Amino acid sequence: MSSKTYAPTAEMVANAHVNEAKYNEMYAASISDPEGFWREQGKRVDWIKPFTQVKDVSYAFGEVNINWYADGTLNVSANCIDRHLATRGSQTAIIWEPDNPDEGAQHITYQELHDNTCRMANVLKDLGVGKGDRVVLYLPMIPEAAYAMLACTRIGAIHSIVFAGFSPDALSARVNGSEAKVVITADEAPRGGRNTPLKTNADQALLHCSDDVKCLVVKRTGGQTTWVDGRDVDYNALAADASTECAPEEMNAEDPLFILYTSGSTGQPKGVVHTTGGYLVYASLTHEMVFDYHDGDIYWCTADVGWVTGHSYIVYGPLANGATSVMFEGTPTYPDASRFWQVCEKHKVNQFYTAPTAIRALMGQGNEFVEKCDLSDLKVLGTVGEPINPEAWNWYNDVVGGGRCPIVDTWWQTETGGHLMTPLPGAHATKPGSAMKPFFGIEPVVLEPASGEIIEGNGVEGVLCIKDSWPGQMRTVWGDHERFMKTYFADYKGYYFTGDGCRRDEDGDYWITGRVDDVINVSGHRMGTAEVESALVAHAKVAEAAVVGYPHDIKGQGIYCYVTLMSGEEPSEELRKELRTWVRTEIGPIASPDLIQWAPGLPKTRSGKIMRRILRKIAENDYGALGDTSTLAEPAVVDDLIENRMNR
Ligand code: WTA
Asked: Domain of life of the organism in this record (predicted)?
């Protein structure tokens, strides 16, 4: 692995919020005196009733309990909007860039953000939504998505965003899981020149939900939608008459702010719960420090608000900091592979944050798409979502960043609320592929996977846990605290278990080596192999299925499915297609299988457990190293799988 380092320029070091000495000093203080450190940082947020308690946390299995700033009260939308109005009312809060560049960008000021958020809040109130109620958002990347998030926080409702790429089935499961009162959607979602019929999807989903659920429909394209009287509500008609004032609700720091469903290694996705005070402090601090955001900068995170990255680093972190945040509806390659760079040029973007899968896809298109754009305003580049390979890192650094923009490779998770490990632009010389250093207050520990013993020293590898809590940490799984404790605090007692493996190199810098559980990462989208398996076996012709990830040049990991058919069913190309379509409708296009291998049998232990290790090896085309197969019930099935492997 490359150990070449790339130091920030002298100019970057001189102007950055944090240089190396300051990082060392602040980091040491955050670990030796977390109470003091986070008491101070808690002041970045405006409190209605200031907190006196800072941290009250137990990681003890059976009684895991996480509280930050627990006696303080505040309102998130007031922090993201109202407190800026006196000084930044006419500053742009959100630059909205539509899918089709000819449609023209919108610049939404903080005052306009205020008025539109209040309109949305009043519409929700009129629908009977109040403090603690759940609202599901199923929206394109349009300004109304931000208004809806902030409107929920304004009235104390809990939002749960479902990525617009998810299917009606996935949507109804999340509406029912959170017992939402309202689903906010739009007629259609334009992306990459094509329109997804969101409202039609929502119609299908709502057939499986309570009749009491209302559907608030935002007009995006004006595309034809069916209308269910008494259930569907026209947002634009109501918003036009709604008041632009709505008093922010006083919320406790530990009141839930949002639920976000994410995939785990077992079962169906779980509702990750984040709360109000600690999350906002953490999102705002990391946004400012990690991107070295300065007043007046234009910041762009290309994520979708359907993922945690969009929550923390398009909406809450940047807006809490009074930033100008770009919100992009489209894709990296529409109308052509120059789109990202054209948007950077057009809006003079200073900080740009995207995923390795996009970088790899654009790298493959050639440098001319980048070079024809003026990227001289870029100062910091970020990446998130999966390990970045050094080749893509170098291209990002050289071709996009012109060798002068530090790359922050930010490692974190839906569960963590914000960045846990990353270099800081003015503080650290970076290494291609390394997440480098823990953020303030984060104490990573590397454990021996089997024994759970701490591995000290450098040049070591193991599973990655975090020793203590930080304010942005998730608090529970919605409706299932037991599952929360079992997932994150049972395997390695006394620590938060991340599910990732990592290496601490000779210099003490961290490298994420990928998931150690059955979660895969496809184009930066996190997916449980168990979810895809259960979708496959729900098909009438499928008897059994096992799903693993395999290395994919663009997506990072692809989805490899081993499928055993019901007896009497014949494998065919047509059936392969049918299964692919099936999974897409059960979960969504992002879960579409890349390779489907017909498996007359699956390798199992004598106790009937599928040996995934072997299936992973075959999918990786690395079948020479299968390891110990002596515990297999029927060793011959492996020979068949190797012979008919799909990834050669
Ligand atoms: C992976 C996304 C390597 C990791 C914010 C983690 C990364 C999972 C990185 C969380 C990175 C995220 N380097 N791996 N910089 N960032 N991951 O919940 O496996 O969608 O556990 O959150 O993505 O994915 P999630």
From this structure: Bacteria
ipTM, interface predicted TM-score of the complex:
1.00
* CA 386 to ligand 1 centroid distance, Å: 5
Q: Which atom of ligand 1 is nearest to the CA of 498?
A: 21
Ligand 1 site-directed mutation target among 166, 270, 413, most atoms within 8 Å of CB: 413
The answer on 553 and 600 residing in a single domain is yes
- Summarize pLDDT for 212-241 with one digit per residue, the tens: 999 999 999 999 779 999 999 999 999 999
Residue 510 lies in a domain: no
H helix runs in 383-456, sequence order:
390-395
- The 10s digit of each residue's pLDDT in 435-493 is 999 999 999 999 999 999 999 999 999 999 999 999 999 999 999 999 999 999 999 99
State if residue 167 touches ligand 1 by the CB under 6 angstroms criterion: no
Segments forming the whole domain that contains residue 369:
1-496
Last residue of some domain: 439, 468, 496? Answer: 496
Calculate what percentage of the chain has a pLDDT beyond 70: 100
Contacts of 474 (CB under 8 A, 6+ apart): 272, 273, 274, 414, 415, 416, 417, 484
- Rounded Cα distance between 637 and 648, Å, is 19
Would the pLDDT of 179 be above 90?
yes
The verdict on 536 and 443 lying in the same domain is no
Q: Residues 40-95: pLDDT tens digits?
A: 999 999 999 999 999 999 999 999 999 999 999 999 999 999 999 999 999 999 99
Same domain, 90 and 125: yes
Q: Binding site residues for ATP, as ranges?
A: 385-387, 409-414, 500, 515, 526
CB of 267 closer than 8 Å to CB of 530:
yes
Structure tokens belonging to residue 296: 């007046």
Ligand 1 center from residue 414 Cα (angstroms)? 8
Q: Is residue 254 part of a domain?
A: yes
Q: Are residues 261 and 306 in the same domain?
A: yes
Residue (of 95, 101, 170) closest to 138 by Cα position: 170
CB of 414 closer than 6 A to ligand 1?
A: yes
| CATH value at residue 147 | 3.40.50.12780
